Amino acid sequence: MSFTKSILYIFLLSIVSFTGFSQGFLKAEGKKIVNAKGENVLLRGFGLGGWMLQEGYMLKINKEAQQYRIRERIEELMGPKQTQEFYDAWLANHMRKIDVDSMKRWGFNSIRLPMHYNLYTLPADKEPVAGKNTWLEKGFALTDSLLAWCKANKMYLILDLHAAPGGQGNDLNIADRDPSKPYLWDSEANQEKTIALWKKLAERYKDEPYIGAYDILNEPNYGFSNPDEDKNGTKEKVNAPLRKLMVEITKAIREVDQKHIIIIEGNGWGNNYNGIFPLWDKNMVLSYHKYWNYNDQASIAHIIKARDEQHVPVWLGETGENSNVWFTDAIHLLEKNNIGWAWWPLKKIGANNPMEIKSNPNYDEVVKYFNNGGDKPKDSNVYSGLMELAIYSRLENTIIHSDVIDAMIRQPFSNETKPFKPNLIKDKSILYAVDYDLGKNGRAYFDTDTADYHTSTGKRSPGNRGRIYRNDGVDIVKDSTQYEKYYVNHIEKGEWLQYTVNVSQKGTYTLKMNTGADNAGGRITIIIDGKVVAKDIVVPNTGDNKKFATFEVKKLALKAGKQKIKILTAVGGYNFGYIQFVK
Length: 583
Description:
By secondary structure, the protein is an alpha/beta fold. Among the domains are: 3-51 and 110-289 and 307-318, Alpha-Beta Barrel (TIM Barrel); 417-582, Jelly Rolls. The chain has helices spanning 3-18, 67-78, 80-94, 97-106, 137-152, 188-205, 240-254, 267-270, 301-310, 324-336, 361-372, 379-392, 402-409, 454-457; strands at 27-29, 32-34, 44-47, 110-116, 156-163, 211-215, 261-265, 284-290, 314-320, 340-344, 347-348, 355-356, 399-400, 424-425, 429-432, 445-446, 476-478, 486-488, 496-503, 507-517, 523-528, 531-538, 544-558, 561-571, 575-582. β6, α7 (240-254) and β7 (261-265) form a beta-alpha-beta unit. The protein is globular, with a radius of gyration of 26 Å. The chain starts with a helix and ends with a strand. Mean pLDDT is 95; it is low at 1-21. It comes from Pedobacter ginsenosidimutans. Keywords: Carbohydrate metabolism, Cellulose degradation, Glycosidase, Hydrolase, Polysaccharide degradation, Signal. One of its GO terms (molecular function) is carbohydrate binding.
């Protein structure tokens, strides 16, 4: 696709996706989601994983990683009062108006709110009067604030019951399930509370057009017919209890709210719709979830088939946790098929999302203790580490990953490359290897291992093996000898990196290449604006691939202004730190 055509395509998609945002309630019309004017609305959003409901992996905790166990273990270290202080600070800092404002500015138009029921009501076994519902203001107040921020930005808010009373499956972390207590499925009290919560939410938000939909039960994953051998319900053929509960929730909502879309999800983490059809309401959307598989038409064939047979819209309610290559390919596939999406998550401790929450040494000790045991950290250090983490969750304290945003919003519809940083080149300027251009694999860079497709292949392939700094296929690690410095490693034959530079003064330059290698086998070729200017240059042996030294490539003519420099690996096996330009 040419640059002109790609810009036109983006413009047309914008008309389809963003028009009419003050045009009343969203609704299902045939196989499309439309506004009150009947205009197609393509949802582009993020799920706020980690805010109301913490999953351990987002906090680097991989043992007993349900939120209730994380909280219990924090209480054991520093007591209930300080633990409550942390959770209050977490909820206050993790999501604010600045986050929603930024999402709108970046190009997103919707938010999926993963709700934990315990912010809205008491657990059934803790109700003062059995069978009654105590309503808690905390969750509703947080939701009201988020809705106000969405309205201010003309963005849709989709309510998602992520942790239902008792938990909706055997994937314990996603629903904060306590396995010592009754499931949602074997407790009438839990089911009644779930239904009542949705009715309460519908009563509160029935007249709010910026509530986009009610996603009534996230990722059911329970084998009703054979719970021992089909724990997560991927092979379930009947799904009768799931259908029954969703019908009952729908009925309760419709008693007070006739306007909002109701989104349903199949069993097996949202994808198993056996026994769910026919649908029972005229304003419904089917959700499915998609992780770590190929981004081809076959990967969405099941949900396209359901859309056609039921004549109903579909929405990808959750996906992500992969590389930029995967993100770009997935979004291109989805929007080509008029399927809106909500990525997961907006922020966490980790780099493959728009915002990365930074850790701190005291919190790292808490994580080490939770995961590996050993000596208990001091309660004062635990408190300091957790409160600092809560403050670090504020947008202005996170690391903003512009490469992730670019891969989601621009790259699905454009082959154009853009500089990652301004890269103004003067005498003795340094260009870091990790600051290669923004763009698709094969356009801004080329790497042989770009994404994780293990659902399709059975083999994990992480893309960036270092999982740091950027989220493309390029392998990046932190330099342990220098603060906040990074370098490219695992460089293989045929891989390359492109840099758009702006040279301040025309002239002849020496390029000082900073590399590390434990052999003398590496070779590079330098290409400027498509022309080879230096070929098969030997990368010297420094004795250790983590020991860096510079070697010189002399007498390279650079014009003034912008040009593209490509560093092509003819033979790999070296690490790459930076280029210094000496006039």
